Amino acid sequence: MAASISTEQVVAGSPAPGGALPGATPRRQRALRLPRSPKIIAGLAMLAFFVLLSIIGPLIAPYSPDRIFANSPVPLPPSSAHWLGTTNLQQDVFSQVLVGGGDMLLVSLIAGVIATALSVVVGVTAGYLGGLADDLLSMLANIFLVMPALPLLVILFGFLGKTGSNDLFLIGLIISITGWAWGARVLRAQTLSLRNRDYVDSARIIGERRSRIIFAEILPNLTPIVASSFLFTVLYAVGTYTAMAFLGLVNPNWSWGGILYYAQGANAELTGYWWWYIPPGIAVALLGTALVLLNFGIDEFINPRLRAAGLTRRTSGRRGTRTRRSQQFALTPVIGVAPAPAVLSVATPGEGGEA
Amino acid sequence: MVLVARRLFFYLVTAAVAISLDFLIPRMIPGNPVDAILAKMQGVTITPAVIHALDLQFGVNTSASLWGQYAHFWNNVLHGNFGVSSANGFEPVSTVIRQALPYTLGLVGVATLISFLLGTAIGAIVAWKRGSWLDNLLPVVTFFQAAPYFFLAFVAIDVFAIRLGWFPPSRAAGATDFPAFTWTYLSDVLDHAVLPALTIVVASAAGWIVGMRNVMLTTMDEDYVLIAAAKGLRKGRVIWYAARNAILPSVSGFALAIGFIVSGALLTEIVFSYPGLGSLLLQAVSNNDYELMQGLFLIITFTVLAANLIADFVYVFLDPRTRQEA
Amino acid sequence: MSGERLLEIRGLCVDYGQGPDAVHAVTDADLVLHRGEVLGLAGESGSGKSTLVMAATRLLRAPGVITGGEVRFYPADGPAVDLLAADYGALRVLRWSQVSLVLQSAMNALNPVMTIRTQLTDALAAHSARMSRRERQARAVELLEMVGISSDRLSSHPHELSGGMRQRVMIAMALALRPQVVIMDEPTTALDVVTQREILEELTDLRDQFGFAIVFITHDLSLLIEIADSIAVMYAGRLVERAPASALFHAPRHPYTLGLLSSFPPLHGPRSPMTGIPGSPPDLRMLPSGCVFHPRCKFAFDRCAVEAPPLEIVSARSGRLAACWLQAGDAPVPAELAASEPDPTEPAASANGNRPAPERGGLRQPADLSELAPGSEEPAEQGSTA
Lengths: 355, 326, 386
Known about the structure:
The complex is a heterotrimer. Chain B is mainly alpha-helical. In chain B, about 75% of the residues lie in helices and about 0% in strands.
C-alpha cells in the first residue's frame, strides 16, 4: 500500500466493495484472521458448549434415557429426582436431553463435510471452467436448490425404511444431497469474480497448470466463504435431522427431534407438559443460534459495511475510531460548535471582497 | 419476458427431474415395497385390483422394461393418477391430496406473503436506523430463525391456545362444522388459522429481516439515495427509494426461501393437527403409505415451483432492467 | 453577477470518525460564494473538496462529522439560515429549491427502477403542493427540452439512456426548482471529451439564462479555465489559494497552484518542461507540521515547517487569497509567484488569447494555452466582451 491513503479508503476499511474479499491476495497463505467480534466469541462459546455436552452427555446423564420408572401415564413435572420431569412413559427427560445432542451433531458434521466438499467441487469447477460445464453444473445446482427438501427426504427415508434410519453416516449422506446446492452457487459466483483478477490472469498467461491455479490462487481466497458455507450447511443439517426425527423418519431415540416426536404423539402441548417439549426445542434453537452467530460474524468479516455501529470494536478497520451511534441519514452531525439560532434575523447585504 | 420464459423452461426441467426421481427412488431400494405394504395391511381385505395397481405403480411383477414402466409412470402423472393411498382406505391419492391442498395453500400462502412483507419492511427500518436499539433485535431474531418451526408451534399452542385461550389449539375449523361459504364458518376458519399462521410468520420472517437489512445497508450507500435526500423528499420517501431497490435480491432469493418455509410450515401443520398436506405427510410416514408419499412429493414440489414462477414474474415487474430484450 | 453573498463558509472543520484517530478531512476552510458566480473548487483526490461542500450542506455521509465552523446561506428573500444549526425539516425546505446537486456518475445518481418522469417531478411534488399532476408533467417536459432531450423519454428508465443523456437529465433534474446554487461534483469526469464539451456548453448556456451560481468541484484545473469565474484550490484538507480564474492562471500566488499549473502541457507555443510536483499527498492521519504543503514545496523556508499560514488577502485590488508565508513578506517572493495579474476590470476574455469571444456569454473558446505557462508576464491581447 502506498504511504498516502485517500480518505475514502481509510473510511471504508477495505478496497473495492461489491463482493470482493478484503485483501484477497495472490498466493500468500493468509492465516484466517477472525476479528474479535462479540458475535464470533459468543457463537464459538455456545458451539463449544454443545459439542462438549454431546460428548460427555451420556456419561453424566443420571439415568438411561430409555428407563421406565413407573407405570403412570401422566408425565411428572420437574422434581429433585427428575430435574426436567418425566415423559408419559415415565422416562427421565433430563437424561434424554443430555443424550440427544450426540447423534445429531455427528450426523450434521458428516452432512456438513460431505455437502461442503460437494459444493466446493461443483462450484469452483463451474466458476472456473465456464461454458458448457458451467451451464450444466449450474443447472444441476439450481434444480436441487429449487426442489423443496422435506418431501424429497420423506421419500428417500421413507423408502429406506428401518435399514437406513439407524445408519448415521447414511443419514448424513442423504441430508447432504439436499444441502450442497447453496454453497455451490455462492462459491461459483466468487470463483467467477476471482478468476478475472489480474493475478489469476497472469498465472494463466505464465502457463501454470489449471489445478495449480485453483489450489494455490483461488481456493485460499475462498476460505471465509467455505467456512461460512460449512456452518450454514451444518445448521441446515441440524434443523433437517431434527425434522426427520420429529416425523419419525429416522430413529427418534435419542435426539431432540425424537423427544419432540414422542411429545407430539402424547399431545404435550395441549396438556401443558412444558418440561417435556421446551428443553429439547430450546436446545436446538440455541445450537442453531450459535451457528448463525458464527455465520454473521464471518459475514461481517467478508463485508465490513454490515458491522452495526458500536457493536464491533474494529469499526472502519481502525481501533479507536468510533462511528457515531444512530447517525441520521443526510443530516451530518455537528459537534463542538456553539449553537446559534438556525435563522438569523439580519441578512447582511453582500460585500465585495472577503474579510 | 425472455427471462420468464427461461425460468419456465428451467422449472419444467426440474419438474421432470422430480418425476424421474419419484420413479427411480422406490426402485432403488432393495426389497419389494408392495410386499411391505401388504404386510402392514393385515386384517384388511385387499382386492386383486388393488394389488395389480400397486404392482403397476412400483413396477413389480410386470414384464415391461424399465423404460416402459417409466413411460407408464409419466402417463399416470400427467393424468393425475398417483395411485391409491393405503392409509386412507385405498382412496385415490389425488383425491386425498385434493382435499388437503386448499388448506395448505391458504395457510402457507398467506403466511408466507405476510412474512415477506413484514420481514422486508422491518429489515429496511432496522437498516435505516442503524446504530439504534433496533440493532439489538437482530440476536433475538436470530434465535427465532434457529428454532424449529414446529417447536414454536408447541409454544404457541401451549401459551396462546391452552393457557390464554385466545385461539383454538388445533384443526382448521370446529369439529362439528360443515364446510360452507357462510360467514360463521369462514370466520371460524380464520380463527383457527391465526396461530399456525403466526407461528409460520414468526419463524420465517427472520430470514427476510436479516437479508433485507444487509442489502439495504449497501443500497443506502448508493448515490441515488443521497440525491433523494438532497432533493428534500420526505424521509419515508427516501427510504422507499432505497427499499424499492433493496428488495430485489429478496425477491430473487424467494426461490431458495420458499422451499424451507414450506417444509417448516408443513411440520407446523402437524403440531396443529391442521388438515393440510403436512398432516398427510405424517400419516404417510407413519403408515408406510408409499404411494401417498410419492404423490405428496410431486404435488408439493410442483406447488413450490409454481410459487417460484410467480416470484419471477414479480421480479420482472419490479426491476425494469430485466425487461430489455437482450 | 452581483457581488452579493449567497453561501458563506467560515472555518469549517470536518473529520471522519471521532476520537483520537479521527481523520481531519477538512481544516479551517473559508469559502464564499456569490450570487450567480461560478466557483471552481480544485484539488487532488483526497484533498477534501467534496467533503467540504457536502459537509456544508449537511449531506456528508457517516462517519463524517463537522467539528467546527459556520455555514450561512442567504436566500434571495427571507433571513439567512445557519446550515449547521438547522434541523432536518429546515434543511428539507432549502434542499433542491435553493441548493441542488449534480454528481459524477449519472448511472449511480439516477434510481434504476424509476422512470425519468418520476425522478424529474418528485422534487416538484415534495416542494410545491399546489402543482397538479398535469403541471408537473408539463414542467418535466420543459426541463427535458431545456437540455435537448425529447419528451418521449419521460417513460424511460435510466438504463435505456446513453451516458451523455443521463448526465443531461441530472442537470435538468437539478434545475427543476430553479435553485440559487447548483453544486456539481465532478460532473464531467466520467464522460468522453466530446460529450464533456457539449455538457459544459449547455451548462454555461443554462447558467446565463437562469443566473444560478455553480460550485464546480473537479480535479481538472484546465477545465476550470473555461468556465469558472473564480477558483479555489485545496490541498490536504485546507484551502491554499483563491482568486479570479484568469488571475490564478496568469499569476498564481501559491506554490501548489504553481505546481498544478505546470502539470499539464500547453497545446501550442514553445515547449517547456513539465515539472509536476515531486512527492505525494500526505496521509491525512499524519499531516506535516506547519504548512501542509511544505515537504513538497521548493520554496519552503524555516517558518513553513513550524507554523501553518492562514488564508489571507494578497491583493487588495482583487481580494484574492493565498495561504503562504512567502506572501506575508517573510522571504523574497520568487518570480514565478509574483507575476502581475491581468487587469481585473478587463473581462475574463483575456484568457481567450487572440480569438474573439462568442457573442452570447458562454463557454470560452479553447484557450491558447501557451499563455498559461507560468512565468509569462504579459497578459494576452484583449478580446471582445464576454
